[in-house]
Design goal:
The complex is a heterodimer of chains A (about 325) and B (about 325). Chain A has about 325 residues and is α/β, with parallel strands linked by helices. Chain A is about 30% helix and about 20% strand. In chain A, the strands form 2 sheets. An 8-stranded mixed beta sheet of chain A has the order 6-7-8-3-9-10-12-11, with helices on both faces. A 4-stranded antiparallel beta sheet of chain A has the order 2-1-4-5, with helices on one face. In chain A, α6 (about 160-170) packs parallel to α7. By secondary structure, chain B is α/β, with parallel strands linked by helices. Classes of the chains: A alpha/beta (about 325), B alpha/beta (about 325).
Amino acid sequence: MMAPLLEARSLSKFYPIKGAARGAKLHAVDDVSLTIGAGESVGLVGESGCGKSTMVRLLGRLIDPTTGQILLGGDDITAVSQARFASAAGRRRIQIVFQDATESLNPSFRVFQAIADPLKRLLDMRNTAEIDKRVRMTAALVGLPQELLQRYPHQLSGGQRARVGIARAVAVEPSLLILDEPTSALDVSVQAVILRLLADLRDRLKMSYLFVSHDLNVVRLLCSRVVVMYLGKIVEIAPGEALFTAPRHPYTRALVAAIPDPARRREARPRLDGSPASPIDPDPNACRFYGRCPMSTDLCASAMPPLRAVGPDHFAACHFALSPVGGTP
Amino acid sequence: MAQLEIDNLSVEFRTRHGVVRALEGVSLSVARGEILGVVGESGSGKSVTAYTVMALNDEAAEIKSGRITMGGIDLRAASPEAMRELRGREVAMIFQSPRTALHPIRKVGKQIEDVLREHAGLPSRDLKQAAIAALARVRIPDPERRAEAFPFELSGGMCQRVMIAMALACSPSVLIADEPTTGLDVTTQAVIMDLIRDMSRSARMSTLLITHDLGLAGEYCDRIAVMHAGHVVEIAETETLLDRPAHPYTRQLLAATPVPESRIETLNSIPGQLPDLRSALPPCRFSGRCDRRQTICDEGELPWTELSPTHLVRCRFPL
């Protein structure tokens, strides 16, 4: 195991519900612990509402956790509030590439300004020549032609905008890059270019990635370890290959079985029906997947299964994770 | 005879910046009970094809040539009233974004009742039950309660199912599904696609499935047509298209699509971009991006090559 670059300890984020019963809370992320090693790429997958986006915002320090800590290189970065962290020295070490570059780029900033802005804010660069040099270097790094630097976002193609979003994140040389669905708005031919660019940048800049995507085949391409979330909880953590070929949690099995696969078009595959239970004050003594899970035994309704080792570097939160794969009672 | 037949369809859009030749010579047919996939990247003309069949294109669109027939009826000759009769009853469409396609402040059960009243001619007293049955059919849990919900009270996946329930309510003979599962989780996508497949099989519904996802088309479609820059470039039975693609673009598209066996080093990117559809275009609109291009590709009419009775490719030098 690599020395962890980032360590999240019992991270939770609860939101009070307006107009609901007094004290009712939405458990967006509930007691989640995970580590990301130096140079490691970790995938984060799960359905909408599972807490992926909240994890992105927590680990990216865009919001404060309700409880828990985040350690970056051993330093507790949750000791200062999110508002103060924005100008703290640690800010440049974690950067985020957002889902839709069209939405996340300032429409009135030319590409040059978009990349220069974090250099000024986070590295306190003042020397114009130095900024100019660094912007051009970064643009070259992500494959943006120099003549595009004076364009506005709306004058760029989707692929070019994606490159700008990546350029402004890597310009400050972060140690952790959080990628939130970075290619979901792109056509496959452009997606392929951006994915290759990301793999290349990771190797060259020695960054760690937290890669959030709904496309499991894309996660599989880039990540050595994958974390699966369901209703605010981690249900499985496994090396990429093991997760896809031998998933141990029933939810992960359903997720993997749902990936469209022409090779298996004649097979009947298990389908997950219904929708997740309510994230508002869920029963702390029941598995979150209870009711939707094909197992759903009495034990599942009365005891929350902890995340436990089921193989090398492989953890699953299911009472039946050690029973044979596919074995349903 | 095919249930839906599109023959040599050409569509142009007049814009301030010139005429966009969005579709040229598009021919597709869908047999009863068949699912035909139409795949391609943004700008390939997939959605324009769907909107043209439904006669839902905006005023800037002009059909230059072509015939569209459904169950033998010539849709282009149909009056707007006749077309409105057909939509909903004979042909239904699932749109990309359910939130914009549903009425924002009408209960979803009522919206389905509207469709049933208009097109199925059900007596008023049966409408409510029929709407609830339609919701149950798309496996919406607790359909009685959900019928009373407004679209904003439902998740994206639920809205999508409501729209599918509405599209399938009158048992149409043709379903046009334009990216029906975009934005849905893979688990929900699987349930919905299984449902569309079941409907196609059991009710002999003809489905035109428009998607950018070759994996999805590969799992659910009987045949697949590949579009590029307003042209259909290849059409074949699914296994053939996936295993032995003949058009250079199809091969490139397949190699760019991540599958479980893909490796980042070998993931293909397609060089170049779509040509500007407002400019003078060569006969083969892929020639500018093609690695097999020869001078003859830019001359004369682009022929169809028939590799087998069911495998057609629009390329002079198929693979």
